[in-house]
Amino acid sequence: MASETAVSAPRSPRGESVVVDDYSLSRVPMSARYGWFQVAVQRFGQISALSQFLLGATLGFGMGFWEAFWAITLGAVILEIVSVLVGVIGVREGLNTSVIARWTGFGKAGSALVGLAIGLSLIGWFGIQSGVSAAGLVAILPILPAWAWSLVFGLLVTAIVLRGFNSMQWLANVTVPLFLVLVGWAVVVELSQHSIAELAARAPAGPELSFVAGTTLVAGGFIVGAVITPDMTRFNRTTGDVVKQTLLGVTLGEYVIGLAGVLLAHAVGSADITRVITSSVGWVGILVILLGTFKINDWNIYSSSLGVTNFIDAVFGKQVNRGLVTLVMGVVGSVLAAVGFLGALAPFLTVLGVVFPPIAGIMVAEYFVVKRWRRELSGAENIPATSPTWVPATLVIWAVASLIGYFVAVGIPSINSVVIAFVLYVIAGKTGLVRGVGVSRTESAPTADAPTAAAAQPAGTGAQPATAGEQPTAPGTQPATAGEQPA
């Protein structure tokens, strides 16, 4: 696999820069990768956030317990399949989603559109979640108005993400256990006043929610997170690690947090997650909300910055540092949250919910079935020297699958669009319609601000030594990509 033989690019000492590029346009070397359980903590942190509690409460408000259980089961299976398939691409190639897209059906220009969609969607969710946390902070500490807390919360998360995956790992190690302890307390306190068997048999308090609608909420609620899985799994070491962390993270996140939300909604008779939690443990419930939002928001801004970095490189030919992009987008997202502007983006974010799934279908079809650019991608030492500029068939398939997902009312929209995109791309590939138009030159990404392997690898994780046959590069140099001439 290319990611296992890639030469580690030289990186400056950890303390030389406040911001870390974190291999935004290049492969993550094996020396900077993590054990599966550490990455699994981050994955679980994504899925065990406030939004998962809200999902469970929504299901519990409109469905019986066992109906909600089976909706969660089917939705979780769908998410696990998508996450594992695109996650395997990430660990094998060591590249993030929007960069991989250049050689998995989209071409350089198409990957720019993918990066832009990721950037706009996730910066929107970053701002919305910052606003939610601000409302909780006002309830605990009314010393600042909500708009000021939006700025404080958003900028604090941004500061952590500036330091890259290593700082985010530290954040997960702290917030995920605390979140689980506080959630466990809230659940025990509330459910101890009720019979679990009685709650499981109780009719929902709200309007009836169909099984298809419930499954759609489960699968659609995290489909964007599933599509951007390579942003995280490029820091894994093996495909087995990806499978283990996905099964653990998705299963625990969906069942433990989701079903707890269902039972609490039955107990309280409301889908209002703030009311559901604070009715049990008061202000501690606000801490639960803050911790849950904190852990999902770092990935919102992180993946958003990766997408925008690729967009700028693909469209303008400028290789900008991911950390600097993070800083700009974090400030913008925080300010928009403070002024309440992001509430107007809800319809736009809904549209993106059906635009994202076809990306995964196309990537998986190209990488595992069609393989038009598979050898070129996996055979390059760093990244291929060139990529197709446009792949017209892909853009047509992407548009058709998105429209079907949006307008066809039968089935599960997000899954409809994934399956349609996969099938259409395979057909187009096998009939010779998948062809690149134009050739774009790629360059190795700047890594001067990336952390050293020792700094990127926490103590005790067992960093892997360089692969046999690798030659260290001289300080301050970058190995030439195949086909490039050294300066």
What this model shows, in words?
- The chain has 487 residues and is mainly α.
- Helices cover 67% and strands 2% of the residues.
- A two-stranded antiparallel sheet has the order 1-2.
- Helix 3 crosses helix 13 and helix 8 (165-191) runs antiparallel to helix 15 (283-316).
- The relative contact order is 0.21.
Helix-strand sequence: HHHHHHHHHHHHHHHHHHHEHHEH
DSSP summary: helix tally: 22
Helix content: 55-70%
The profile of the biggest β sheet is: 2 strands, antiparallel
- Strands ordered across the widest β-sheet: 1-2
The poorly predicted ranges are 1-16, 445-487
Helix-strand makeup class = mainly alpha
Distance between the termini: 28 Å
Q: What's the gyration radius in Å?
A: 22 Å
Q: Can you tell me the overall shape?
A: globular
Task: Name the beta content range.
Answer: under 5%
Question: What quaternary form is this?
Answer: single chain
Q: How many DSSP-defined strands? A: 2
Report mean pLDDT, rounded to a whole number.
81
Keywords:
67% helix, disordered C terminus, two-stranded antiparallel sheet, 487 residues, 22 helices, globular, 2 strands, mainly alpha
Topology record:
Layout: H1 2-5, H2 36-47, H3 50-62, H4 65-93, H5 97-100, H6 107-140, H7 146-162, H8 165-191, H9 196-201, H10 211-221, H11 223-227, H12 230-233, H13 239-268, H14 273-281, H15 283-316, H16 322-338, H17 346-355, H18 357-370, H19 374-379, E1 386-390, H20 392-407, H21 413-430, E2 437-441, H22 453-456
Antiparallel strand pairs: 1-2
Brief characterization of the structure:
The protein is an all-alpha fold and 487 residues long. It has helices at residues 2-5, 36-47, 50-62, 65-93, 97-100, 107-140, 146-162, 165-191, 196-201, 211-221, 223-227, 230-233, 239-268, 273-281, 283-316, 322-338, 346-355, 357-370, 374-379, 392-407, 413-430, 453-456; strands spanning 386-390, 437-441.
